[in-house]
Each structure stands twice: as structure tokens, then as C-alpha cells.
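Quick review question:
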């Protein structure tokens, strides 16, 4: 059974949440995920700035 991700440094930019976690190899990864109902957008990035840019430019089309 996989271990659940424990996010830290979470922020919200519009409907998108950005958080940092450590993957199974111990490297820091950053996730941007839209919380709007029916959207389904989420992506992992190596850089925090890339995740924040994706959150700022995301447009929901549910």
C-alpha cells in the first residue's frame, strides 16, 4: 500500500491549490491541482515557480 503524500507549504491561487511534498525517492516535488467541481486539472512539477505559474494561468472548463 503506498504512503499518502503529506503536503507542506500549500497556497491557493484562485481555484488551484499548490503544495510541496517529497516523492518516494526523497526529492521535493510540487503539485498544482484545481479544486473546482468537474475540472480534474492536476500536475506535478520539479520547480515551485512552475507550479505557481500553472496555477496562475489555469482556466477551468468543466
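Suggested answer, residue by residue:
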Amino acid at each position: 500500500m503506498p504512503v499518502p503524500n503529506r503536503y507542506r507549504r500549500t497556497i491557493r491561487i484562485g481555484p488551484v491549490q499548490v503544495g510541496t511534498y517529497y516523492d518516494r525517492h526523497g526529492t521535493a516535488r510540487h503539485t498544482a491541482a484545481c479544486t473546482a467541481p468537474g475540472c480534474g486539472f492536476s500536475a506535478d512539477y520539479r520547480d515551485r515557480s512552475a507550479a505557481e505559474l500553472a496555477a496562475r494561468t489555469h482556466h477551468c472548463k468543466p
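Why it works: The mean pLDDT is 90. The chain has one domain: 8-57.
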